[in-house]
Every structure is written in structure tokens, then in C-alpha cells.
Design brief:
Elements (H helix, E strand, L loop, with lengths): L15 H6 L17 E10 L2 E8 L5 E8 H6 L3 H13 L8 E6 L3 E6 L7 H8 L4 H20 L12 E3 L5 E3 L27 H4 L7 H16 L9 H10 L10 H4 L2 H14 L4
Antiparallel strand pairs: 1-2, 2-3, 3-5, 4-5, 6-7
The structure holds adenosine-5'-diphosphate (ADP) and magnesium ion.
Length: about 280
């Protein structure tokens, strides 16, 4: 689920060659006119508070894409239009192997559309639900790629603010693509903060719960939370009752993860490295 002001809904070494060859190719003809009718809808891939994501085929090239449709009326009613504009801006400006590529944008009277890389591997929340947990090797692999995607955004003064397994997609080669920039924020240089209260309850950072404003450190915390969930099967501070969960988040009260190596336990160290330390550094990161 996502709260706000916001949406509502509760293996190998990374080498330069991977990085340089896997950047999304998006050199489309800028004069080409794109309409809803340019695509054939194949199926629904996911839905959220503002619309749906479809698997589509571009009729002329037969290429497969994901098409995210955002309902303008919902965006306006929930005061979320600026978030959709930011999502488009960040996606347009990004070109990184682990960030979802945007190919086209267009609109109809009722919807805004983003035509995106299609990720046939689904999202990590789906895989977590099937597998329960990931192995430490798998977690190391996904986290390495996720860290690179967040580093890329932070270097451009973009904070992501919505790290959670359902926003991490798996492409056709098994690598990740970070998706869903609906809560991201531009212009957050080191030391700057964004004041909106937004995110999904189980994934909120303490400074968000405390409504103190968040900077880049919010995503460092998010990396820790995702890492914990991939290993443990549920987010670190999870409780059915949201106020209790917020108390857990504020107090840093998490369950220890069973059946993991001592190295990974130093991951409760996730807590020491990524959660407690950031609190001290929050103003100067
Ligand atoms: N490019 C894509 N390829 C495959 N599945 C996708 C793609 N984009 C989104 N999805 C699916 O749709 C879900 C919702 O998309 P997302 O962009 O996160 O929208 P929302 O803002 O509603 O959360 C994702 O969690 C994922 O399961
Ligand atoms: Mg999402």
C-alpha cells in the first residue's frame, strides 16, 4: 500500500562490457507520431492507484513494450499531476542498464501514456511471493545492480523514494530494471531535503514517518529494507497494524533473520550500516 498525498495500494561480476552494451537503445524517429492505436494491447501486467500497465505490441515494428496508462482524472483529484510529470522527466533523462527505459510518451483526453521497456521476468515481489526468500548469492546480485541504479539517480540529484520489491523488475536477460518513478523527486542535491509525505507504509524511512523531510539518505535506507526483505521474506518492521509498524520503524525494532550466514547476519548489519549510520549522516549526505 502507498500512502499520501500519494498513491493508495498497502551471479556474476558486473563488468564494463555489461554496462556499456545493455543501455537501452531508444533512437526512435522524433517525427514519428505515436497514438494509442499504434499499439495492440496483449494483457494487463499490473495496476495501481492511477491506472494500469499493459503488455503491448507496436503494430508497425511488432516490438513488445510495457505501456503505463495514468488516468488524468485520478492524478488531478489526488493532486498528483506533478508526480506524473516528474516520472516522465526522470525516465526521459535516464539512460542506464538498470533503470527502465522510456521509449515514447503520448496522451489522450483521459490518460497519459508511457511506453517502456518490457520486463518479462516480472517484479521481485512476485518472485518473493513464490519463493519465500532469495539465496544470499541472488541477493548479492540484485543488490549490486540496485545500488548502481540508485547511485546513477543520486549523481543526477534525483531521489527515488519508493524502493520496494514490486518496483524492481527483471528483464529478459535476468538483470534488474528499476521502475516506477512516480514518487521520485528532482533537484535534491547533497544536503537538500524533500518535504512531501509519501511512500508505502512498510517501507517508510524513520525521517519520513517523523515528517522531517527526506534527502538522498532515504534511498540508502530503502536499499537496506529491500535487502532485508529479500533475505527474510518480509520487510523489517512489518506489522498488520500500521501505527505499530510506524512505532517499529521509529524505534528500529526488527526481527532477526533466521538461517543466514554470519556474514549476512552482519546484515542485521543492514541495520547498522544502512539504517543507524544514515541517521547521523542524514544532513550531510
Ligand atoms: N516495464 C514493465 N514490464 C513488466 N511489468 C511491469 C512493467 N512496468 C510495470 N510492470 C508491472 O506493473 C506493476 C505496476 O507498475 P508501476 O510502474 O510500479 O505502477 P504503480 O505506480 O501503479 O505502482 C509493477 O509492480 C509490475 O508488476
Ligand atoms: Mg509501483
Amino acid at each position: 500500500m502507498v500512502v499520501e498525498e500519494s498513491k493508495t495500494s498497502s551471479r556474476n561480476t558486473l563488468t564494463d562490457s555489461i554496462t556499456s552494451t545493455r543501455i537501452t537503445e531508444r533512437r526512435h524517429n522524433p517525427d514519428e507520431k505515436i497514438f494509442f492505436d499504434s499499439f495492440k494491447i496483449i494483457k494487463v501486467l499490473g495496476s495501481g492507484a492511477f491506472g494500469r500497465v499493459y503488455k503491448v505490441e507496436k503494430k508497425d515494428t511488432k516490438k513488445i513494450y510495457a505501456m503505463k496508462a495514468l488516468k488524468k482524472r485520478n492524478l488531478i483529484l489526488k493532486n498528483h499531476l506533478s508526480y506524473a510529470v516528474t516520472e516522465a522527466n526522470v525516465l526521459k533523462a535516464s539512460n542506464h542498464p538498470f533503470v527502465l527505459g522510456l521509449h515514447y510518451t503520448f496522451q489522450t483526453p483521459f490518460y497519459l501514456y508511457f511506453v517502456l521497456d518490457y520486463c518479462p521476468g516480472g517484479d521481485l515481489a512476485f518472485h518473493l511471493a513464490n519463493k519465500g526468500t532469495f539465496t544470499e548469492d541472488e541477493v548479492r546480485f540484485y543488490m549490486a545492480e540496485l545500488i548502481l541504479s540508485i547511485q546513477y539517480l543520486h549523481e543526477r540529484d534525483v531521489i527515488y523514494r519508493d524502493l520496494k520489491p514490486e518496483n524492481i523488475l527483471i528483464d529478459e536477460t535476468g538483470h534488474i530494471k528499476l521502475a516506477d518513478f512516480g514518487l521520485s523527486k528532482e533537484g535534491i542535491s547533497n544536503g537538500k531535503i524533500a518535504r512531501s509525505f509519501c511512500g508505502s507504509p512498510a517501507y517508510l524511512a524513520p525521517e519520513m514517518v517523523n515528517r522531517k523531510g527526506v534527502g538522498k539518505a532515504v534511498d540508502i535506507y530503502g536499499l537496506g529494507v529491500v535487502m532485508y526483505e529479500l533475505l527474510a521474506g518480509e520487510p523489517p518492521y512489518y506489522a498488520d497494524d500500521i501505527p505499530i509498524m510506524y512505532q517499529n520503524i521509529k524505534k528500529g525494532k526488527m526481527k532477526s533473520i533466521k538461517n543466514i550466514s554470519s556474514k549476512a547476519k552482519s546484515l542485521v548489519t543492514v541495520r547498522k550500516l544502512l539504517i543507524e549510520k544514515y541517521k547521523k549522516n542524514i544532513r550531510n549526505y
